[in-house]
Structures are given as structure tokens and as C-alpha cells.
Specification:
The protein is α+β, with helices and mostly antiparallel strands. The protein has one domain. The protein has 3 helices and 3 strands, in the order ααββαβ. The protein is globular.
């Protein structure tokens, strides 16, 4: 999930509550998360069709293994604080069940 301006203005307690909600929502749809992945992300030009289009690319930065909710919430808090300091780069921090990998595997095509 991208760190947004709204998230940056939240108090520590509000952030911890939000991260706990992220964890609970992930569990409701995907099962227990086992990692937190961090990607540096950017928009890549796809082509001129329909006035031009872009797609998102991600380069892995780090993967943190997690074992329980309290640890995940602490790590999400730490990672967001760490990466929001870099205003020139956009990061995607998310709960997952695998290691961070570059994406996409191949350039998408306009259809």
C-alpha cells in the first residue's frame, strides 16, 4: 500500500490502528500474511494508444518475514516511517505471502 499524505498526517495510535486493520482485512481475504514486501514503484510509458497509457513497475527493495499480528503492525509502522522520508521516490509496502519480486514479468500490451 502506498504511503499517502493522509497516512503521513495520522498520529502514531491512528497508524497502529490502521495497520492492524490492514492485517485483519488481509486475513479475511487471503489467509495469514507471512511477509511484508517493499517495492520502489514508478509508472512506465506503455504506448501512444488512446492518447498514451502507462503501467506500474516495481523493483524489490526488501522482504520482512512476519510471524504474528503484533510484529506485522510494528514492522509496517517502522517501514512507513523509514520510506516516507524519501519524498522523491514512491514505495509500495504491502502484506504478502511471498518474497518481493520485480514486476511486471513482461510489458503489458494495449488491447
Amino acid at each position: 500500500m502506498h504511503t499517502t499524505l493522509a497516512l503521513q498526517k495520522e498520529s502514531e495510535a491512528e497508524r497502529l490502528s490502521r495497520f492492524g486493520d490492514w492485517y485483519d482485512n488481509y486475513c479475511n481475504f487471503e489467509g495469514e500474511p507471512t511477509t511484508i514486501t517493499v517495492h520502489e514503484v514508478w509508472d512506465q510509458y506503455g504506448g501512444p494508444e488512446e492518447g498514451g497509457w502507462t503501467y506500474q513497475c516495481g523493483e524489490p527493495v526488501e522482504t520482512i518475514c512476519i510471524f504474528f499480528k503484533a510484529q506485522a503492525v510494528r514492522e509496517l509502522h517502522r517501514l512507513h516511517a523509514k520510506y516516507e522520508e524519501d519524498e522523491d521516490t514512491c514505495y509500495d509496502i504491502r502484506l504478502d505471502q511471498k518474497y518481493a519480486e520485480a514486476y511486471p514479468d513482461s510489458k503489458p500490451f494495449y488491447e
